[in-house]
Amino acid sequence: MKAADHYFELIGLHKNFGGLSAVRDLSFHIEQGKITSLIGPNGAGKTTVFNLISGQLPLDKGNILFKAKNITFLPPHKIVDLGIARTFQDLRLFQKLTVLQNVLMGLQNRKGEQILRALMGGKALTEEERADLQKAYDLLGLVELGPKSGELVENLSYGEQKLLSLARVLATDAELLMLDEPVSGLPLGEVDRMLKLIQDLVKQGKTILVVEHNMEAVMGISDWIIVLNFGEKIASGLPAEIQKNQEVIKVYLGV
Ligand SMILES: Nc1ncnc2c1ncn2[C@@H]1O[C@H](COP(=O)(O)OP(=O)(O)OP(=O)(O)O)[C@@H](O)[C@H]1O
Ligand SMILES: [Mg+2]
Q1: Could you please report the per-residue DSSP string of 9-67?
Q2: Which of the residues 60, 180, 190, 246 has the least number of beta carbons within 10 Å of its own beta carbon?
Q3: Which tens digits make up the pLDDT trace of 32-65?
Q4: Is the CB–ligand 1 distance for residue 44 below 6 Å?
């Protein structure tokens, strides 16, 4: 990486769905070790941006650079290998599997499946597998779900499921985490716990891109905010700047 290179950068991203322009000429960059938030009204294109970055959707035009490497058009597993992983707005957990099994599924290269197969077959784990299993338990400890490791996901509360989806994305060992609405829909006390966890992750060296509708949370944790409306960037700045940006206020209040 040269000094002029950004840690992560989008350049001129475009994505159309039929006649709908979901992302239009979008450019921004992310600084390492910071919390950057991507905000905007429903349908603004936030999740689509995540889908484009994570390789789940092909983009029409533009470039995505991570640590000066062009990652545009790489398949999702390659993006995760390089160190970028995301959570899903609709969580996408395996409801009929246990909490521990879901975290193991987050491990790279199907290592979790191998561990589960070995455990079910009564086979001894290799040293590496034992370390990965311990990592999964440690991550459950981090999100305070240790006592629920054997519980089926369908029996967890919504808040617990959000914490589990965070543990699962951490299991990938990615350094850039994209979190799609980590606190939306959580009861108040649980919002604070999730925000504290996110801030602790940054202290441990992670970089975070977050999409979130809870404005108090966004303003509280973000180092930088990017605002989308109808697929276009309409503003970016520090929380205090975004809060008083007239165009952002207009978009949010619909006046
Ligand atoms: N796979 C798809 N096929 C067709 N249209 C899509 C697809 N994904 C998203 N869209 C459309 O693109 C636009 C942007 O959607 P997107 O989900 O990115 O918005 P968002 O900002 O994440 O909204 P929300 O805050 O409600 O989650 C919307 O009009 C949506 O209907
Ligand atoms: Mg969305």
Answers
A1: EEEEEEEEETTEEEEEEEEEEE-TT-EEEEE-STTSSHHHHHHHHTTSS--SEEEEEET
A2: 246
A3: 999 999 999 999 999 999 999 999 999 999 999 9
A4: yes
